[in-house]
Amino acid sequence: MPLSEKDVMWVEEPKLGLLGQLYLPIVYDGLMTTVRHIFSKKLTESYPEQEPTLPPNYRGVHRLNRDEQSRVKCVACYMCATACPAHCIDIVAAPAPAEWTDREKYPETFVIDELRCIYCGMCEEACPVDAIELTTLYDLTGLSREEMIFDKEKLLSVFDQTTAAGTDPVRTRSSNLGPAAEAPPSY
Amino acid sequence: MPEFDILTTLIVIACVIAVVMPLVGYLTLGERKVSAWIQDRVGPNRVGPLGLLQPLADGGKFFLKEAPIPSHVDKVFYLLAPAVAMATALIAFAVVPWGATVAQPAPVAMTATMDGKPSALEQYEASQKKYHDTFNGVIVPGLDIGILYVFAIGSLAVYGVILGGWSSDNKYSLLGALRSSAQIISYEIPLGMSVVGVVLFAGTLNLEGIIEWQKQHGWFMFYQPLAFLLFMTSVYAECNRLPFDLPEAEQELVGGYLTEYGSLNFGMFMLGEYTHMITTSLLMSILFFGGWSFFGLEDVSTSPLWGFVIKTLILLAKMGFFLTLYLLIRWTIPRFRFDQLMGLAWKVMIPLALLHLLATMLVRQFSLPNVVLTVASVALFVGAGVVGLMVGTAPNNKPRRVAAKVEVTTAS
Fold this sequence. Notes:
The complex is a heterodimer. Chain A is built from five helices and five strands. Chain A is α+β, with helices and mostly antiparallel strands. Chain A has a domain at about 60-175: 2-Layer Sandwich (Alpha-Beta Plaits), CATH 3.30.70.3270. Chain A has a three-stranded antiparallel beta sheet with strand order 2-3-5. Chain A is elongated, with a radius of gyration of 27 Å. The model of chain A has no long low-confidence stretch (mean pLDDT about 85). Chain B has helices at about 5-40, 55-65, 75-90, 120-135, 145-165, 170-200, 205-215, 220-225, 225-240, 250-255, 265-290, 305-330, 340-365, 370-390. In chain B, helix 9 runs antiparallel to helix 13 (about 340-365). Chain B has one domain (about 70-110, about 120-395). Chain B has 14 helices and no strands. The longest helix of chain B has about 35 residues, at about 5-40. At the A-B interface, helix 1 and helix 2 of A face helix 1 and helix 14 of B.
């Protein structure tokens, strides 16, 4: 809808009083504000010394979750690789070992190219067994491109690392986060 | 004028430069720190304890960086401009007292020689000898054109800006330089006129003499507060400090006349600018706040050495106060529009300065008590406000489009 003349409201500048015309009282007011800010609490976080506290739904480096028997949770269904808009997930599936009675397949290799990934979190959403998750690790660095291609062991080690540090992502922590983080009830 | 001991003068020059240069460096650090604090940040704190070595790192960077000269510039003037900016700022320092000073003795009236008393010539020579033997906290003591010299050199500083802007062959630079010249020339007028009142009372252009007058009669701040206000405002404009930093308004002009400069060339411009801030802070303390005098505190010690130290510290403390005010004002008042800037100078400050000068002359001519001038000064200031109120919003504040009153009707 185009803006009609009636919708436009002109606001007039407020008139200055005598004190306003003298400028100085207003400047004094401003000076008091700036001086107050000099002594107020600083908001700076000194980064390397002071790590930021990130929200649990932050989308950082991936991890592959382990189940209670510390096996990889993934069932190699390819849903994440299909959902991935950047095509950075490469899975090679293999029949599950005979003693793993709860599934048919497991990932023989599970590779994520962290340089290609756009950290959109769609793999996490697609996963039917909550096996892949994005953690709050943000300071990811490497000296070569090869170094930034994470294989299954590396991704599992990220799980170990974050679990040890107590920074599980939001899904894994849902029980600790109150009702808002839980899945909606099914009717 | 007394004769100079060239060696002493050279040593004093070396000492002053050795103090002013680091002071400029730490002023840049102070600027960044205060800006940060006002914005609730911490500021530079990585180089050395609390970031105190930051100026060293900055200076080192300026020296070590390549100084690129763009191919399209006029090389001679491009390189001359920063030199002019820095040199004028440093030269102006020559007559500004930075410590305790003694005014030059007045000439002695020739009278008939009485028996047993020294003759006028002997008296004069004795006083000159005493003056000559006292150490003065200024590079060129007893220069009779004192304040005139400061303004003459200070006006030359605009050449650095104009040359830099013109020789850069860049539209932003040229625009910044043109704005700057218009601004500096406009504000030079109230600047000069606000000081005439001080000179009329002190009866000398010599800065030591002006301090001496204030020591005896009280600070000029108490007699001519309006002149101080005009002086301070003009000086902020002269230094291109916010709220008058239009020559280098980043949002509009990239870097203004500094756009094409890098490394040490840029550093010299900066140096000149900050030296100018120091000089003008000293001038404000000297002209209006009594220089090294502070309600008798300067006479606490009778020993010449301690007296000198105390007076110097008082003067430097006043300078520090005005420097801090520079930094605070920067984040307090937003930048003026260019027409507002010109309007302030020509429509407000110059008439006010003229009227104030008139009041000063009247008080001086009819030998009225100094308090009358205080009253006149304040009355002029309030009067200006009342005039502004009666005229309504000044034309420069009006919105560009005429405001139309529209009945706001709610849709039923």
